[in-house]
Amino acid sequence: MMQSLKYWLSEHPSIVNFRWDHTQSFGSTWSFLFAAIAVYVVANVTLHSFLSLVLSKRRRVPLGPIPAIHSLCVSLISAVIFAGILYSAAAEIRDTRWFWHRTKTISTPFQWFLCFPLGTRPSGRVFFWSYVFYLSRSLHLFRTFVTILRHRKLTFFHLLNQSILLWMSFLWLEFSQSFQVLAILLATLLYSVVYGYRFWTAIGLPSACFPFVVNCQVVLLACNLICHFGVLLLHFVKGGCNGMGAWGFNSVLNGIILCLFLNFYVKMHLRKKNVEDSDGQGDSSSSSKSEIKLE
């Protein structure tokens, strides 16, 4: 069983021989990236504007089991990507240890997770799963349509956040950026838990007594921030990490997400405090609002 799982997740020829190529990999061109982001933004703004014109603000569009099915699919796919890149990372470490001593950039597996050796190309096992992660972003983009139809809400933060995450996953592949393996492991672990929780609540099971999704997002942002300092330290101490130009640009994008999220997080707690002061029922209100904001 384990050997079969290991084969399909890290040793299959399609995984081992994968190569990020603009002529063969779907969605691998800059034109596709810009077009996808433009279509995503325009389609959501158009849908929100159309519903605002034809329906009252409080009216919701019934979606039946679609949100629950979507959450379950994202959770399962994220779990598969997590297992696949974990197995693949172990195989890559096993196969490339001999190369580390030549580059003198890394010497331990943890350093490899943070810092690819200079000259790394986007091919092989981990980049296959990075590509799958990039393609899976389309499922996350679909969540925005669900939010508009169910809650009639569309925020600038959500559009920007989803667009930035799609852009970042593209840059990981395009420039063989360091840190992407650990970033994907952290992100897919979070997504499998968060969307599993959303599926749990969507089928009518009890929700947490605290803003579960928001707290998970805080943990992910904190881990990413710590790891970014680790990449920067290794880059200067060990003589260079691959894809640092893309890493710098992605760090700026991460900084934008962090600032926007912290602004939302502070406002959420201020609103919670005000509601508690007025009627003592702020917990459930703030929790439901936070779920809507981060969907």
Q: Could you characterize what this model shows?
A:
- This protein is mostly helical and 295 residues long.
- It has a domain at 97-121 and 147-293.
- The protein is 77% helix and 0% strand.
- The protein contains eleven helices and no strands.
- The chain has helices spanning 2-11, 13-16, 30-54, 66-103, 109-114, 125-151, 156-174, 180-202, 212-237, 244-279, 282-293.
- It starts with a helix and ends with a helix.
- 29% of the residues are buried.
- Mean pLDDT is 85; it is low at 280-295.
Mean pLDDT: 85
| Oligomeric assembly | single chain
Major pleated sheet? none
Write down how many β-strands occur, each being a DSSP E stretch of 2 or more residues: 0
Low-pLDDT stretches are: 280-295
Any idea what the shape is?
globular
- What structural class results from the helix and strand content? mainly alpha
**What series of H and E elements makes up the topology?**
HHHHHHHHHHH
